[in-house]
Amino acid sequence: MHCRLVWPLGLALPSGVTPGSVLQVGVVPVACGGTNLYEQWQPGRTLYDNMIERTEGAMRALGHRGRLAGMIWVQVCAPPPPPPPPRLEI
């Protein structure tokens, strides 16, 4: 995947990167809905260990052509339930 860099003001750019640079980005999906970062994504726990194994596998597949620069954690909350229907008084 190729992405055009949009960089927030006030943050230092990585060495050799300028605003508008086109970067190649790899994504290693390891999402698991309804989990708790603190309780279930710790070293030695299944989800964490699976994430490390998949990331290391992706890095081996790249050889020396890439480097791990970070991760993105997306926390999504379920929408609230709809309000109950209005009561009709007769």
Describe the structure.
The chain is of the alpha+beta class and 90 residues long. Helices cover 23% and strands 7% of the residues. It is built from 2 helices and 2 strands, in the order E-E-H-H. Strands 1-2 form a two-stranded antiparallel ribbon. The relative contact order is 0.13.
Helix/strand layout:
Layout: E1 2-4, E2 22-24, H1 37-40, H2 46-62
Antiparallel strand pairs: 1-2
CA-based shape? flat
Unreliable parts: none
Rg from alpha-carbon coordinates: 21 Å
Our estimate of the beta-strand percent is: 5-15%
- Structural class designation: alpha+beta
What does the main sheet amount to? Answer: 2 strands, antiparallel
End-to-end Cα distance = 61 Å
How many strands? 2
**What do the pLDDT scores average to?**
79
Question: How helix-rich are the residues, as a percent range?
Answer: 10-25%
Count of helix runs: 2
As laid out across the biggest beta sheet, the strand order is 1-2
Order of helices and strands: EEHH
